[in-house]
Amino acid sequence: MAAAFRLDDRPALLGGAPVRRDPFPSWPVFGEPEEQALVGTLRSGRWYRGNGENVRRFEEAYARATGARRCLATCNGTSALFVCLNALDVQPGDEVIIPPYTFIATVNVVLRQFALPVFVDTDPETFQMDASKLEAAITERTRAIMPVHLGGNVCDMDRILAIARARNIPVIEDACQAHMAEWKNRKVGTLGAAGCFSFQASKNLNSGEGGAVLTDDDSLYERAYAFHNNGSGLKAIGTNFVYASTGHNLRLTEFQAALLLQQMSRLDAQVRTRAANGAYLTSLLGQIPGIRPARQYAGCTLNAYHLYMFRYDPAEFSGLSRELFLKALRAEGIPAAGGYSPLNTQPFLKNTLGSRGYRRIFPEKILKEWPERTACPANDRLCTEAVWLTQNMLLGPRSDMDSIAVAIERIRRHAADLARQASA
Questions:
Q1: Looking at residue 4, what is its pLDDT?
Q2: For the chain, N or C: smaller number of CB within 10 Å?
Q3: Per CATH, the architecture of 12-28+266-339+382-423 is what?
Q4: 153-163, pLDDT tens digit by residue?
């Protein structure tokens, strides 16, 4: 740890000087190349993928970068998931298996199909879907399995894919937070039937909004393309009003693609920096009692670190609550958050599954048994322990990681005083 930091100094919440006064690297990172790309697109007058070249060029570049045969750009990550469910013909009455520790979009797209979301509990060691509990969740109604590579870490894909193949169930990888992450040296998003990515403003590859679908299946790609283009297939765009299927307008714009092409030029260096800082931070935090960094499965050969996640144990911090720990950490100049709440117990799910549409589609017995069937006790506990640091915090020098570790250790050493002050 850097000599400039002193562990015995009082925490900022107790009147001491904060560990950090300078902010972490800002996000997004951009410059003249992005500006020129946007202005060039503006002046071209070609703002739509039907008469421009940027979207096509980005799709080709992202497919090359990931090793996928096909890439379809969409207007956001949610729409990428939505496109895949439709391309795989997920219909009302079907079931889709998802994790409970994820962004709401993962469940929303299932509900938009009037399908039943079936939650598989989380492995708290990794923050990923617990593949050991997957097979028990499968029924004759299961139409797709949609694991989420949460935070840039990678699910246990060998086990998930083996179970899926044995049951002939397609796997859609929700890789919206995992750009360039790898499982056994293969990029995520290329392992299942399809993989979905988000380019929303917080993501490691960013165009404000945007998304993509990767697949090696030409037939799936053609169905996905038609669905994202109002049902108009590859050969029909801009030429006639012939439709291959139902669909939506979920196309990426030429402006977003222009940004993404320039942002991709920065991506490899950013990936390497996050990976090195993430590994170093884990070596530091793993030495602090009560802090348990998220573990990676052996097959994860590259963690993309959209989030740096760890579990916090108050027992090693004199009973200091997670809320007060986070407050103390922020006071030290280390922005941190508590992460997701249990998605499977959100009130909107009960209301949706009790709606007249769902009651018409699903037998009463299935809906009645759903809460117990999708109980996720390990995830419930994880949601009370998790701490998140955002990806931009891993883009600076190694000394930034030292400051995070020092702030946490300083709080631990003075946790009893912090708890007493809070209760006074």
A1: 58
A2: C
A3: Alpha-Beta Complex (3.90)
A4: 999 999 999 99
pTM for this entry: 0.96
CATH 3.40.640.10 fits 32-263, yes or no: yes
d(CA 231, CA 202): 30
Where are the domains positioned within the chain?
A: 12-28+266-339+382-423, 32-263
Each residue of 243-291: pLDDT tens digit? 878 999 999 999 999 999 999 999 999 999 999 999 999 999 999 999 9
Phi, psi of 144 (to 5 degrees): -160, 155
